[in-house]
Amino acid sequence: MDAAEAGVARLRVLGERVTPARRAVLRVLAETADHLCVEDVLARADLIVPGLHRTTVYRAVETLGELGLVTHVHPAHGPVVYHLAAGLTGETHLHVRCRRCGAIQDVPADLLDEVADRLARTTGFQLQPDHAALTGVCRTCGDRPNAGTGAAIRPA
Ligand SMILES: [Zn+2]
Ligand SMILES: [Zn+2]
Ligand SMILES: [Zn+2]
């Protein structure tokens, strides 16, 4: 059973309807490692089930989110992007986004554990590091000549 089928099974367990739109969204997200905004999800869902109404797919993405089958990440700029939830993929990660080229990269889920622990201890604040992408400059953009401040932020 792949992650999309696991999502369908989960819908059934939850007593939720397995609609063509929900099935298509699960399939789209299961078959990509990319970070898709809702427009991307709509375009790819349309290849799987042509003619689905945009609103229907939007709502499917939303509902799957509310049911905990799909998660989203907020980049500092640009639209929200979607993933299947860790419960379906068995994998979690955090995100960094390059402010020059806009590329989003996956980084290890435990990257900010110490920061989160320290914050919780000292202020009681509970960090959710997976909800927003961290902003910076990727290696490619940082290495590029004439890339402005790129040299300054290159690791020593
Ligand atoms: Zn959010
Ligand atoms: Zn970049
Ligand atoms: Zn990701």
UniProtKB/TrEMBL annotation:
Pfam families per the UniProt record, alphabetical: FUR
InterPro entries in alphabetical order: FUR (IPR002481), Fur_C (IPR043135), WH-like_DNA-bd_sf (IPR036388), WH_DNA-bd_sf (IPR036390)
Keywords assigned by UniProt, alphabetized: DNA-binding, Repressor, Transcription, Transcription regulation, Zinc
Entry superkingdom: Bacteria
SUPFAM superfamilies (UniProt xref): Winged helix' DNA-binding domain (SSF46785)
Family per record: Belongs to the Fur family.
PANTHER family: FERRIC UPTAKE REGULATION PROTEIN (PTHR33202:SF7), ZINC UPTAKE REGULATION PROTEIN (PTHR33202)
Protein's name in the database: Transcriptional repressor
